[in-house]
Amino acid sequence: MTTITLSPHLRSHAPLLLPHHHHPPMSLVRHLTLQRRHHHRRRLLSIAAAAVKQDTTVWTPAPLTSVRPAADYLFHVTIDVSGTPDVAASHTHAGQYLQLRLPDAENAKPSFLAVASPPSFAAARGEFEFLVKSVPGSTAELLCGLRRGDVVEVTQVMGRGFDVERISPPEEYSTVLIFATGSGISPIRSLIESGFSTNKRPDVRLYYGARNLQRMAYQDRFKEWESSGVKIVPVLSQPDDNWTGERGYVQAAFARAKKILSPQATGAVLCGQKQMSEEVVSLLVAEGVSSEKILKNF
């Protein structure tokens, strides 16, 4: 029979040093068994939780009314939700969004799309309008290739949207500065056309950035927006030689202009690139604008 002599400082670890033909103590076996059971139970619970979370998303079929070009890489997409009044009624605030997926593209991730039309549009027409950027390899790209009558699946509209109550009443917030880049103009269109008392505010400016005029959507709506009280400042980062307006990036154009007469009476709305958003917020706060009065939809 083999005799093993342990030095005093190793005796506390004796179960780990026993020859392989010795069985570990029952307490250790029970501990390891319980540990495995606990790990297995946790894994089953996490799988069940994930399944429940996945199942909570309700998808509703909706046909496309139209898909047409809006600018380079941008498309106007209109979806008919007249047959699903609960979905149509879920759009209550400018800046909200929904998820969209294609029934025949099971492996493609759903797209999050901000609703471009105002909430009243769904109530009056039974439709949602979107401005969709065609990103290669995405659901959005597939969507932009569809036609009238093709069916997609959507969720109800979600998100808090732009909380314009924080920059109300208009008499107390006479200046509202709006910043958008690229397809970020989509929820801004919803805001402008929803109306937030722009005609009662003497200084409402929209700084709208794009690479060039070919990539700038909604130019056909500019006159309508300006007639409602919004001054539009297009900013092009790569314009042609004939361009006489603002050049560079939105944040730089604003930094050159500023013209904030009263920071305490100023609100702002932002939607677009993360860097633009961060830099504009820094500029506004440095000018004395309260961060509580800077609205985003996410």
Short recap of the structure:
The protein has helices at 14-17, 26-55, 85-89, 119-125, 139-144, 185-194, 222-227, 250-257, 274-286; strands spanning 60-71, 74-80, 97-101, 111-114, 127-133, 151-154, 175-181, 203-210, 231-236, 246-247, 266-271, 294-295. The protein has 298 residues and is an alpha/beta fold.
Features:
FAD-binding FR-type domain-containing protein, Rossmann fold, 12 strands, single chain, OxRdtase_FAD/NAD-bd, FAD-bd_FR_type, alpha/beta, oxidoreductase activity, Riboflavin_synthase-like_b-brl
Low-confidence stretches: 4-21
State the shape: globular
Work out the number of β strands: 12
Q: Quickly give the CATH architecture of the largest domain.
A: 3-Layer(aba) Sandwich
- How many domains in all? 2
Strand order of the largest sheet: 4-3-6-1-2-5
Rg (C-alpha, Å)? 28 Å
% residues in beta strands: 15-25%
Account of the 3D structure:
This protein has about 300 residues and is α/β, with parallel strands linked by helices. It folds into two domains: about 60-155, Beta Barrel (Elongation Factor Tu (Ef-tu), domain 3); about 165-295, Rossmann fold (3-Layer(aba) Sandwich), CATH 3.40.50. Helices cover about 30% and strands about 25% of the residues.
